[in-house]
Amino acid sequence: MTILESIPRALAILLVAAQLACGAPGSEPAPAEGPGSDSPSASLQGTPGGRLVAALRAEPGTLNPVLAADRPAQTLRYLTHSDLIHINRETQLTEPALAESWSVSEDGTLYTLRLRRGVFFSDGEPFDADDVVFTFEVYLDPEVASPNRSLLIVHGEPVRLEKIDAHTVTLRLAGPYAAGERLFDSIAMLPEHLLAAPYAGGTLSDEWKISTPSDRFAGLGPFQPSVYRSGESLTLKRNPHYWRRDSQGRQLPYLDELVLRFAPSEDAEAIRFQSGEIDILSDISAGNFVALAASATSAELSLRDLGPGLAYNFLFFNLNELAGDDLPAVAARQEWFRQLEFRRAVSEVVDRDAITRLVYQGLARPLGGPVPEGNRLWRNTALEAPARSVESARARLRAAGFTLGADGTLRDPRGAPVRFSIVTNSSNRQRVEIAAIVQEDLRALGIEVQVVPIGFQSLVQRLLETHDYDACILGLGGGDVDPNSESTVWLSSGSRHLWAPAQESPVTSWEATVDELMTRQLTEIDAAARKRQYDQVQQILAEQLPLVYLVSPNVLAGAHRDLGNFRPTILEPSALWNVHELFWTPSRKKP
Amino acid sequence: MRFLSRRALHGLVLLFGVSLLTFVLAELAPGDYLSRLRLDPTVSDETIELMNERLGLDRSAAARYFYWLRSVARLELGYSYQSGEPVAGRVGAAARNTLWLSGVATLLAWAVALPLGLWLAERRGRTEVALASGATSLLLAVPDVLLALALLLLAVRTGWFPTGGMVSLGFAELGWSARLLDLIHHAALPVTALVLTIVPTLVRHVQAAFGDVLDSAFLRAVRGAGIPRRRRLLRYALPAAANPLISLFGLSIASLLSAALLIEVVMSWPGIGPLMIAAVHSQDIYVVLAVVLASTVLLLFGNLTADLALYALDPRIRREGE
Amino acid sequence: MTSRSARLAAYCLLALHAVAALPGFFAPYGYAVQDRDFPYAPPTRLHFFDARGTLHLVPFIYGLRPDEGGSYAEDTSERYPLRFFARGDSYRLLGLIPSSRHLVTVDAPGRLFLMGSDALGRDLFSRLVYGGTVSLYAGLFGAALALALGGLIGALAGFYGGRLDSVLMRTSEVFMALPWLYLLIAARAIQPLDTPPARALLIVILILGGFGWPRPARLIRGVAASIGRREHVLAARGFGASDLYLLRRHVLPRTGSVIWTQGALLVPQFVLAEVGLSFLGVGVSPSIPSWGNMLGDLQHFHVLTSDWWWLGFPGLALVFVTLAYHLLARGATVTSG
């Protein structure tokens, strides 16, 4: 019942019945038992009014949801727009949003969505199937170049949306697609009445720019943009026509105003949060979280440690097939990197507990596979972080023909000393510190490592274009929990297949197996079978160690203690996911 | 007049050269604005190609530079890859914020340094001068970052001052006097940091300039003539010492946009410094170009102001110019 | 008095640079050596009297153990006397001679954190010493390069005047206006990854010097121009002296005092430039300590609120160095003027 919070009860029962009838919406696997899987607490009745000040790490590039490419813009899309089927950030399951119910055909390729009636855009115009049709047309138009477009290309073909009547649409996929319902999330429903003309005129990208927030805007989200101050803040005001109501039928959101203050760094955010200039904050770094808890104003703050999230850090080696004799030095070192025993030895010697303790103040979890604990639905719980053992690592290297020289340097079978460099992006302090720890750990094996922090752009260039690097420390995650969200990383043809991207055909047999399993799970509609396949993928990735998984940092958030319904989630936008039901308790003195 | 037109021409050539070189440098730096997306698993290559086209990144460097030149002619200064809007507005707003900070600080610094320097120059050799010069030496040696960090720490510890930004929320609803107070409250710490960085250098120069003049035979003669101190200093010493001070003032103007860079970053002042750093890091090239252009214009303007003032005040220079 | 303080400043600077030249010897530990049991340790206290009140002539320290409050308490069960010229972590003197002698250290498992330790349990005093190598020499060599370039260009421009002068001076204006942040980012990206830190430092030096020459050049140009018009120089030219001779014999020597004064003023500016760059994250690689990198850590909220005092050390070191150079510059001006 908790999935359907803030939806009138009668309707909820109806929906459950609908889901049972057609079977498909229950296609998520049951949440695995875990530390975070206790059922979410119910929402409290709020009191309307008040202003909430939240932090935004950078200025959003645009208010246009179709073009939102950066995280601030995506957060803004979440706050000002609504989607048809929504991923509940708390349960990680799909729930009805603007589509009040849906059904899926037997073969899993046709979705029929029934739209909620009596829904109005923030400018008072009604929302109906024409807006949905228009929205999909815009998102799929290559000319528009929406960053979300690729989500709507399933099995190589764009999804096809058709209007049945004013409140019913169908969506046809080229084939069965396991993550079908999830693709609706983040596809913001656009007002045809406002955007049809600019779209036809080819000027859609000029609409809804950040500097003209209140100019002819209409959305279905809880808030609408109102005032923008360059370099300072963006103020959102309550959408009086928002479609959600609380359990007593009161119009949501409770808050009158939501101010997004731009703070240039996580530290500037923390400083302002501590001094009370910001009320609610996500993405707090571990060091800052501990400092906030110890600060003088900590009694005013409610700080939450949500445990490990979806993000994770890892070390990986350059396993690209290098063309010609471009990089002979790298190619020579690749002979070590390609050996599984070498990668295993590295994985065994890395002190994940030290990383957790020193870099994350204990607010992280050592990791043994590609899916961190935050992903309650899909993690293969059998995969544990390997126990650290220098002895075992040495034995592996010995068995692979490496020898420890008299000077303490590890030498390969040919007698060459084992030395390599680790790159990481210099802007990420945690990664630079992790690199320092890995460097010290590898010294225990006689391996000399040079840590080279470089700018993000040159890192990307080296990883994806020139392949001129030995090893790299990087992080991933923060998207959705579904296995699909990282498929370009695991598929050997994927352009984010970090260790050897965009292969024409899989180089190794295990990569071929992963490819096959990943493709199969994509069309698998039976949730349990899909989970088994993905478990197998994780198992292979944990055994073959294309990435040496390190740790998964905890998601840390905070808010003023008088903020009601503050229940941050590990899925973005973390603390603001339920912004429609956040409210100030009466003990808060009015600003 | 010929002087002015020659200067204008020089200025244009300089602006062109600086913008071209900056563009080349930016091209040399690895990656482009879309690099960030290239590692994001949720964005497909196809999308990146489309965005590449939409942002015009697929065109040749020369084409993009010429596009930018045309855009400069329209006073848009290019558009930001990040917001898709003309850069001029964004950079203009940031420059306004920076100028408010550094303008106030520069005026304050001059208001402190002129009398102090004069006072010190008059009392050469006394203990208070030694003390004061010790103090200025010490201040001169404290880097602005350190000052800014110390003041930020003060703000965080005491809660007396805002810890960043330029105005409070709800600024728009305030009356004008409350607005002014709010601005002053926010600017207090960054302005203090900046004043403390500028003052010691200014005092040094003022002291030296007046020292030379007061020592000169001319001023000794003036004193010998029994002209009262106030009149002596204002009517005779000040004009005589004006030349180096005017050049110095020109430099003050020229550095208005750049002097506060680190202070702005530390205190998260929404000025041109943080904008520039962010743009450099994300390869938002046209923003960088516009910022560089703006500071070069100010540099030129500062030099020009100084030269014009010298020209107007100093008959010797006037003659040389003709 | 000025000359005496200038001399004192010179000695201090000499001593500092000597320490910075031999960081391996003066630092108790290597800059990357971690003691993972003691992150964020406070400065180790030196004792002369033990728990029983007995006086020890050689100061000693106690070991640390974690206490309940998340901090550390002294473990008085064992004393670790300071050892001078003892063996410890091995390093290479001047990058060449292998050695493991340290000026002062204690026997393991004792740990000497003169200024406390950082997040990874690395000794901050050692990092300060190693950081000094980077910051001081980046400043010194960068300034030397800028002066050499600026001296040459300024002398040429001032001596010849005319078209060459205006071309060189316009070029200097362009250089003063350029955003050299970019060049640093580009250079960092282009250099091979196995570049040793010393060579990476060289790039910072080259860029500091390559972009720092316009100011000294403009000053020296002024001096050279005035010398070039003096009567004895004009006379020498009248006697058929070559330009090269005139430059070498008359112009460059006269610019000497300007160059020295400028040098003494430029070095601290360049040290600060390194600090600024590293602070913004585009200077010296964050994996090696420099005063700028260490100061940059203060940007972090948790460091600023709880550990600000230990990171004040690089700040103090900076102030001290700048002050000393300024005194030196004043001395140079007084003696030459």
Low-confidence stretches of chain C: none
Q: Provide the spatial order of strands within the biggest beta sheet of chain C.
A: 1-2-3
Mean pLDDT of chain B: 84
* Rg over C-alpha atoms of chain C, rounded to the nearest angstrom: 25 Å
The appropriate CATH architecture of the largest domain in chain C is Orthogonal Bundle
- Write the H/E string of chain C, N to C: HHEEEEEHHHHHHHHHH
Structural class of chain B: mainly alpha
What do we call the CATH topology of the largest domain in chain C? Answer: MetI-like fold
| Sheet of most strands of chain C | 3 strands, antiparallel
Helix content of chain C: 55-70%
For CATH, the homologous superfamily of the largest domain in chain C is named as MetI-like
The SSE string of chain B, one letter per element, is: HHHHHHHHHHHHHH
- What is the beta-strand fraction of chain B? under 5%
Helix content of chain B: over 70%
- Label the overall shape of chain C: elongated
Going by helix content, strand content and strand pairing, the class of chain C is alpha+beta
Q: Supply the number of helical segments of chain B.
A: 14
Total strands of chain C? 5
State the largest interface.
Answer: A-B, 62 and 52 residues
Indicate the proportion of strand residues of chain C. Answer: 5-15%
